[in-house]
Design brief:
This protein has 514 residues and is an alpha/beta fold. Helix content is 49%, strand content 15%.
Length: 514
């Protein structure tokens, strides 16, 4: 058998690229080795790597036809030269003597195993500088990547749901033996709820030009950190539509893999640096969603391995499924009502909760002043139920509060709504919005003994509220029952009340949407 390159003889390629040499900075390990994946085989010989496609149909790819395999090899070279032009040398063929046709192979420079990103991380040799550089490289690539209406169409809610559903269908036949049917159903439910309420978020991403022809398969094993900079290999080449994606989706694959190999801090650093370099203000919920999606892609791959007879793949699928669930929970979009009488400490708890959860804080007291042309700290004491605090102004305030909340929730931002919430009418309106935009509603009521509230009101200096102890008592008299709220005992420190709130959120997040 012999090997001929697509653009010339093997000897010509050897002369140009030095085939057979083993530079110490580029090659390590045995002179020859074989590595197999679910869709291909890689032969390592000297300082070269030869990749062939298996003649298999895995549902999401079909390599049964030789011409399909050759076309895919040629596309692999073309697409990967966008990232590592010096590594992908061309397409060759493995041929029997006297044969007119052979098996197509991707011809590459062999990379040193010791410089794999995954190897460096596991050995504790990966620096933050390497991760920052990768974030910058991918942001720069995405800035210049191809865009078109066809590409943008893959960033829609429907397209993203279609990708998820394809993965669910691939996993379903072996779910019971790998990740468990209940866990698979939980993931599917959480995904559908997030996507159902986020049309405006994904439409905005499309309008902003965030959908690009990307890499599609960024994992630590395919990144090599050489002395002159990282080399990113092995982009997704068998289905263009799977490579047409949000840039954040692209980088999230690598963040997910960093987490999987035990480097969650580096994963967060990567996403933060990418966001800075790309100028991407995406909400944290979208980060979590895409990390979960990428984890489930790996679940699908491991389920394929399991179906092919590799029983060890079940444990790998389970580990990736756990990552998916964790991030889907963390990315849950929430509407958190923090209510209570004046002096109950609700505004302090609401602010702490928003900071801890990365949510947007909306204050009814502040908004009431804004809507009436006053600065937030301007004093405007009024008798109970009169002036700025009459029914008309109060309705206007809550209507605007909920309008802004709905817009933020639709864009993937969780919100903390700081208001008294003494009226069942306004709480019902909030619940309707949460249901409409598929956000989790958390209702909390801060409580403190009357004497504690009195002391706090007497000591109050500044702030958005104009209420005093007399108004607080009248509000208490008029308040509608609120049985659905959890009571936060805020007679001690606000941090103690915050812990009660966070525990409640954690309890709710364990339960899938009904």
């Amino acid at each position: 058998m012999n090997i001929e390159a697509a653009t010339g003889s093997a000897s010509a390629v050897s002369t140009i690229f030095g085939l057979g040499s083993r530079p110490p900075d580029t090659v390590d390990g045995p002179f020859a080795a074989i590595r197999e994946t679910h869709s291909g085989v890689v032969f390592l010989v000297g300082d070269r790597a030869y990749k062939c496609k298996k003649p298999v149909d895995l549902g999401f790819l079909d390599f049964r036809d030789r011409q399909q395999r050759r076309d895919c090899c040629e596309r692999e070279v073309k697409l990967n030269r966008r990232f590592a032009p010096d590594i992908y040398l061309g397409v060759a063929e493995l041929m029997d003597p006297g044969s007119n046709t052979g098996e197509p192979l991707v011809l590459m420079r062999r990379m040193p195993d010791r410089q794999r990103l995954s190897t460096l991380i596991r050995s504790g040799k990966c620096s933050g500088d390497t991760i920052v550089r990768l974030g910058r490289m991918m942001a720069a690539f995405h800035a210049g990547a191809d865009r078109s209406p066809e590409i943008s169409a893959e960033g829609s809610t429907d397209a993203i749901l279609r990708r998820w559903m394809a993965s669910f269908e691939q996993v379903a036949p072996v779910a019971r033996d790998t990740i468990g049917v209940e866990r698979a159903a939980d993931i599917a439910t959480r995904v559908q709820e997030f996507l159902a309420g986020r049309d405006s978020l994904f439409a905005q991403r499309v309008r902003a030009g965030r959908i690009i022809d990307g890499h599609g398969d960024l994992i630590c094993d395919d990144i090599f950190c050489l002395a002159d900079g990282p080399r990113i290999l092995d982009c997704l080449d068998f289905d263009d539509r799977l490579r047409y994606l949000d840039g954040l989706d692209d980088i999230a694959f690598l963040a997910m893999d960093l987490e999987k190999v035990g480097a969650p801090d580096l994963a967060r650093l990567l996403l933060d640096q990418y966001a800075d370099f790309a100028g991407d203000p995406a909400p944290s919920s979208l980060r979590h969603h895409y990390i979960a999606y990428r984890a489930f892609v790996r679940v699908k791959v491991d389920c394929v391995r399991y179906a092919q007879g590799d029983t060890s793949a079940a444990a790998d699928a389970g580990a990736y499924a756990e990552i998916a669930v964790r991030h889907l929970r963390a990315g849950t979009v929430r509407m958190i009502l923090v209510g209570g009488l004046p002096g109950s400490g609700k505004s302090t708890v609401a602010g702490l909760a928003a900071d801890r959860l990365g949510a947007v804080l909306l204050s009814a007291d502040r908004l009431r002043k804004e809507l009436n042309g006053l600065t937030p700290l301007a004093r405007s004491p009024q008798p109970y139920g009169q002036g700025l605090y009459d029914a008309e102004h109060t309705t206007k305030t809550y209507d605007e509060l909920l309008r802004r909340a709905a817009r933020l929730l639709g864009h993937g931002e969780s919100v903390v709504l700081d208001a008294s919430w003494v009226s069942a009418k306004f709480r019902s309106a909030a619940a309707s919005i949460a249901e409409r935009v598929h956000a989790r509603l958390i209702e909390t009521k801060c409580w403190a003994p009357a004497q504690v509230r009195q002391t706090r009101l007497d000591a109050r200096r500044g702030g958005f509220s104009d209420a005093d102890a007399h108004i607080a008592q009248q509000m208490a008299n008029d308040a509608d029952p609120w049985p659905s709220a959890i009571r936060l005992n805020n007679s001690g420190t606000s941090e103690q009340a915050l812990r009660q709130l966070l525990e409640r959120i954690e309890d709710v997040d364990r339960v899938s949407f009904e």
